[in-house]
Design a protein that fits this description.
- The structure is a homodimer.
- Chain A is of the alpha+beta class.
- In chain A, about 25% of the residues lie in helices and about 40% in strands.
- Chain A has a 5-stranded antiparallel β-sheet with strand order 1-3-4-5-2, with helices on one face.
- Chain A is elongated and about 60 Å long.
Amino acid sequence: MPFESTDADAMLTADDLEVHHRYDLGSFRVTEHSIIEFASQWDPLPIHCDVEVAREGFFGGIVASGVHTLAIFQRLAAKTIYSSWAVIAGRRITDIGFPHPVRGGMTLHGVATVTDIRRDRSDRALVSTDGRLTVADQAVLTLRSEMYVRRALT
Amino acid sequence: MPFESTDADAMLTADDLEVHHRYDLGSFRVTEHSIIEFASQWDPLPIHCDVEVAREGFFGGIVASGVHTLAIFQRLAAKTIYSSWAVIAGRRITDIGFPHPVRGGMTLHGVATVTDIRRDRSDRALVSTDGRLTVADQAVLTLRSEMYVRRALT
């Protein structure tokens, strides 16, 4: 469960994390209304915003912006795990894939696995994570990210 | 300038695009209020949402969520170029870097360069693009993306 506290002493440091540990991030239900609302602001293309145009297009209907799908993953991960980690900053996301489209009415389920912890300095480590969102066990988002996390004071 | 029309005949196909062509995507000013508002919904970590905690942290103040920074890039690119391309779907984003933090009050300037056009089928091509957001010529976001774009009917 996430810490609600922002007390630095309550945070997990990189030394508390374990490679191969897999986290359940919970679920998020997306509606067509929210897909259109997000995309109207951040990715205003007809395939994400225009019901009529999207119906005639490749997917036969509105599909979520990839940025929206990523934002849903980040929300789940922030609320369940990153909020309890002593995060310094995200460094990069090395690969984001969108293997299947996200449509209104879907419930996306998130998981994240720590894949590497590189202790590059005495006070911080670079933590690599593989994440994914699935709908009925079919992946709709895959990503690999790296973030700096504080180490325990010794 | 972007096409406002969604008439398929008015769209640029992959055959109209050129490798090495560089597009100016215009600018977007971000406020600390909007950073907190975005992150409260999609990346609710103290470094993005909590002024007091962020002030004591690594950056000495609120910094934008990487997802927010990516969304700003996507908004600029969608409005200036992707809206006039016959986009089928985004395939993946292969590398997103966050070389410098984004803070309230900054004006982000976007550019995108077509780096590859792979005509993999008679009716579509995979178009690769390098994009970046800069503030006073310092990069705050870099990314490489791939999307499927329709080819001209022959």
